[in-house]
Amino acid sequence: MKASVYLVGAGPGDADLITLKAVKALQAADVILIDDLVNRALLQHAPQARVVEVGKRGGCQSTPQHFINRLMISLAEQGQTVVRLKGGDPFLFGRGGEEMLALRAAGIPVETVPGISSGVAVPASIGIPVTHRAYTHGVSFITGHTQDGGSPDWQALVASGTTLVIYMGMKHLAEISRGLLDAGMPADMPAAAIQNGTLQQQRQVISTLAELSMAVHQQGLESPAIIVVGEVVRLADSAMLATALAAAA
Amino acid sequence: MKASVYLVGAGPGDADLITLKAVKALQAADVILIDDLVNRALLQHAPQARVVEVGKRGGCQSTPQHFINRLMISLAEQGQTVVRLKGGDPFLFGRGGEEMLALRAAGIPVETVPGISSGVAVPASIGIPVTHRAYTHGVSFITGHTQDGGSPDWQALVASGTTLVIYMGMKHLAEISRGLLDAGMPADMPAAAIQNGTLQQQRQVISTLAELSMAVHQQGLESPAIIVVGEVVRLADSAMLATALAAAA
């Protein structure tokens, strides 16, 4: 390990879904800046390290991004080996790109250690492959909202024919569903929402595009969750599907 | 570990980019069915296991999918613990979905162990985050060709505004570039091709959409490679970019 700062993906939740390279980075860390959603069991790999919590606590705001950037730079300049431990993958909606650029601008050697993203692993946990060549030629990973507050181009995304995996979409699920329906996606398109995927407390609702929002509300599912919309949702494990439907009845 | 067959993602190449869960599956394996592109160093985790090569060898055809399916079922029925070790993630263009359905139909308990997909980790290896909220609201992972021989809907994909990550696209790179240009993507859109990503022998070309195909040809880059098209390619590490440009001159 040769960098000063490692942007490390902690994976989707399950503490075994972290890479060997990430474990090596944790073992080499002097200090770990950890996000709220990261499984604390991962800290077992770094008993020597000081841990700084930089995620949301209680109802409070999360630590501002510029503060995290400055802290990483300051620690690195003091000669510390820093691990920035982030849920999922640092470069797939993890703001790792922003942190990398801040570190690079400050002349700090930085290395990224990829993580398993929830968008693939969480659907997989109930038997949904995000691609299957009989159903789709690809998959799009999007957030429910763009930085400027606008919506993604639902029309284009529906026309693309890709499976849609939506991160951070629970608060705007009704709006997202309406956007997809208005863009011409069939009301009976299979859709799923999966909360706390790969953890013991995982819960899911499998439904249709038109009914997912209501079903999620009825079941009381909340963030953090992954939403999947597409024909591949039909491939969900039938035993789990039966359980989910029975719970919904 | 309780399943009979584990569909395990081996990651993008670097032997350290495999998960702890995958290592546990390898340690528990009686037999491993391994793909051609998987790093053989991973077999160190399973000295006890019999290894069956099921990928392409030399110029030969790869083992037919139905043969692999039958072999997994047969071994599982003999009471063997089977690991099906696949490059990247089993469910992101890994045909893991097809294998899962075949096993499920035969009543064989199957579990998927996600892997780091090349589409995220390989761009990351040269400092390209596939998403960055200042540039895009998402990323689409697609193959250059659909199962029926047709092309993806380039128009829709361009309109989606997502970063495009193209798997298995090197043979049809000129055609893919033309499709994207015809769909209205700017000729000077940054684009990269990265061969053998995360391995010692990694090579990359960073160029523009209009010139990538020629640059790849001139540099002699070949499969396996990941193609990335989008504004985020601008974020590639400047040191590596300088190296790539000097090599291209």
UniProtKB/TrEMBL annotation, chains A, B:
Gene3D superfamilies: Cobalt-precorrin-4 Transmethylase, Domain 1, Methyltransferase, Cobalt-precorrin-4 Transmethylase, Domain 2. Keywords: Cobalamin biosynthesis, Methyltransferase, Porphyrin biosynthesis, S-adenosyl-L-methionine, Transferase. Belongs to the precorrin methyltransferase family. The gene is cobA. Pathway: Cofactor biosynthesis; adenosylcobalamin biosynthesis; precorrin-2 from uroporphyrinogen III: step 1/1; Porphyrin-containing compound metabolism; siroheme biosynthesis; precorrin-2 from uroporphyrinogen III: step 1/1. The lineage of its organism: Bacteria, Pseudomonadati, Pseudomonadota, Betaproteobacteria, Nitrosomonadales. PROSITE patterns: SUMT_1. This is uroporphyrinogen-III C-methyltransferase. Residues 5-212 form the Tetrapyrrole methylase domain. It comes from Pseudomethylobacillus aquaticus.
